[in-house]
Amino acid sequence: MATSLTLERVASSEWLVPQSGGMRVPGRIFADEETIAQLEAEVAVRDGWSALRQVVNVAGLPGIVGASLALPDVHPGYGFPIGGVGAFDIEQGVAVVGGVGFDINCGVRMLATPLSREEIEPDLERLGEDLYDTVPAGLGSKGKLRLSIAEIDRVLYEGAAYVVERGFGSVEELAFVEEGGRMEGSDAGAVSERAKQRQFGQVGTLGSGNHYLEVQCVEKVLDDEAAAAYGLELGQVVVSIHTGSRALGHQIGQDYLKEMATASTKYGIPVPERELVCAPIESPEGKRYLSAVACGSNCAFANRQVIAHLVRLSLARVCGAAEADVRTIYDIGHNNAKIEEHVVEGKTRRLLVHRKGATRAFGPGRPESPEAYRDAGHPTFVGGTMGTASYVMRGTEVGMKRVFGSGIHGAGRALSRKKAAKRFWGETVISDLASSGIRVWAHSQRGVAEEAPGAYKDVEQVVAAAEAAGINRAVVRLHPMAVVKG
Predict the structure, then answer these.
(1) Going by DSSP bridges, is the β-strand pair 27-30/8-11 parallel, antiparallel, or unpaired?
(2) H or E element: which one contains 51?
(3) What's the whole-number mean pLDDT along residues 91-119?
(4) Judging by beta carbons within 10 Å of its beta carbon (0-12, 13-18, 19+), is residue 249 exposed, middle or buried?
(5) CB atoms closer than 10 angstroms to residue 211
(6) Which of 211, 329, 414, 420 has the fewest Cβ atoms within 10 Å of its own Cβ atom?
(7) Closest by Cα among 397, 471, 478, 481 to 439
C-alpha cells in the first residue's frame, strides 16, 4: 500500500478515504483535525503502525457493507484499528479475528450508589483501600471463585446468570446487562482446554493494563431527559468497572489466529495484516470462531457480575450503603462481533457488526435496550483517564444510520504503553494525581506509568468530535475521585 493516502473532508468531524485499489468500500473517519493530523503523520512513516492503513485494509475484506469506519478515539490496533467498526453481509462477509481482538467483550459496568460526593468523601480513603483489598487485580490475579472445567463450561454457556446462581448479585439486574448477560450461540467445545485452564481462578478479577475500578461523581448533567431515564443526578457517586474476559479471551484470540490463518488460505482470502485472518461467516470455521467469541463474551459478563457484587460488599462495609441500593445502570462491552439488524439504503439487513474498541450505541426505540431506557436509547460509557473526566453518552438516530449504532469507548491512546512507560514514572503520576484530589491504589507502578493521563488523547476533544458528527450524545460528565489499577 502507498505510504500516503488522500483524505477528503466531508463535514466538520467527518473524513472520507475514497475507494481505490483493493478497497471494496470507502473508509469513513469521524474525528477532529488534530486526530486526522496524527493519522496522516503515522501513515507517512513507512512500515509504521498506522490506524489509517488499517482502515484501508479493513475496507478490502469480503462482504463489508457501507464503509470501513473509524470513530473519534481511533488509534492503531491489531488488524482493525481501535475505534474501528466493520459490518459484513451474512452470506458474503467474513468473521475477522482482528475485528474483535484478544480481550473479548472488554467493557464497563457502571453502578449507581445512593451516596453523594459530600457523603462519601470522609470515607473515600478507607473505601479505596477496601476495594483494593477486596477486588483481586493485577497480572495473573486469582479470585475467590474457583471453578472446575464443568463449571467454566457453564460460565461460557450461561454468562452472568451462572454466577448470580452462585450468589453474586441478583437476577433482576441482568435486565440492565447487554444481551441480558448471555450471548447466544456459545459453544464451549469451540474453546480450547488451555483457555479454560487459564480461567480456573480468574472469574471475578480485574486484571491489569488499562483495566480499573473508579469511584466517580456526576459533576455535570448534559442531557436532562436521558440522565433521568438512567437515574443519574448531579453530585451522585457511581462506580465504573472496566475489565473483560481475562486469560480465557486472550487465549481464544491466540488460538483462532492460527485456525483462521488456515481458513483464509483455504478460502482464498488475501490477508494484508496477520490479525485480519478470517473465514466466511457461514463457513464451519467462521461459525466456530463466533461461537468461541460468544463464550468469551459470557465469561466477561460473569467477570463483571462478580466484581460488581464485591464492590457492593465494600460499599456496605465502609459507607453503609445497602447492597440493594447500589444499582447496575448498565453493562456493555466494546470488543465484539454481533449479528444485528440495520437499515442500509432503505432495506433492513442482517449484518455481522465487528466493534473493536467501539461500543454498541443504539439510539431510541431499539428492542435490544432495557425497556426503561428504550425512549432515550441505552447508555454508553466513555472512559477518560485517571486524571480527567469520563462520560456517560447515548446513541442517536444519526449514529444508527452512519455507524451501525456504534459509539466511542474512551479517550484513545496517544502514546503506546512502551513509550508511556519511558516518559512517565508511576510514583510521580500517583503523587501528581493526589495533589489534585484523586487517590490511586495500584498493583503495578509500571502499569500506572503506562496508563498515565498524558498517554491518552484529550477526552473532551474526542467527545466533542462524536457530538459534532451527531453519532453520540453526552448525558453526564463524571469526575474521578478514587481509582484502583491492576
Answers:
(1) unpaired
(2) helix 51-59
(3) 97
(4) buried
(5) 22
(6) 414
(7) 481
Decide: helix, strand or coil at residue 389. Answer: coil
pLDDT at 142: 67
Higher pLDDT, 147 or 253: 253
Site of grid cell 459530600: 118
Does 136 have pLDDT greater than 90?
no
- Asked whether 252 and 292 are in contact (CB, 8 A), the reply is yes
B/e letters for 213-240, b = 16+ CB within 10 Å, e = fewer, are bbbbbbeebbbeebbebbebeeebbbbb
pLDDT band at 437 (very low <50, low <70, confident <90, very high): very high
Residue 244 has pLDDT above 70, yes or no: yes
Average pLDDT of 369-385?
Answer: 96
User: Which residue carries 447466544 as its cell?
Assistant: 184
Q: Is the pTM of this model over 0.90?
A: yes
pLDDT class for 148, splitting at 50, 70, 90? confident
* Chain centre to alpha carbon of residue 58: 19
User: Are the CB atoms for 17 and 7 separated by under 8 Å?
Assistant: yes
Task: Compute CA distances 426 → 110, 207, 423, 443, whole Å.
Answer: 26, 18, 10, 11
Smallest CA-to-CA distance from 401 within 32, 24, 67 is with 67
For the chain, what's the residue count?
486
pLDDT band at 4 (very low <50, low <70, confident <90, very high): low
- Residues marked as catalytic: 409
List, in order, residues 6 or more apart from 235 with CB less than 8 Å away.
116, 117, 118, 217, 218
Please tell me the distance from the alpha carbon of residue 388 to that of residue 264, in angstroms, as a whole number. 42
Secondary structure (DSSP) of 204-247 = T---STT-EEEEEEEEEES-HHHHHHHT--TTEEEEEEEE--HH
Instruction: Residue 419: count other Cβ atoms within 10 Å of its Cβ.
Output: 13
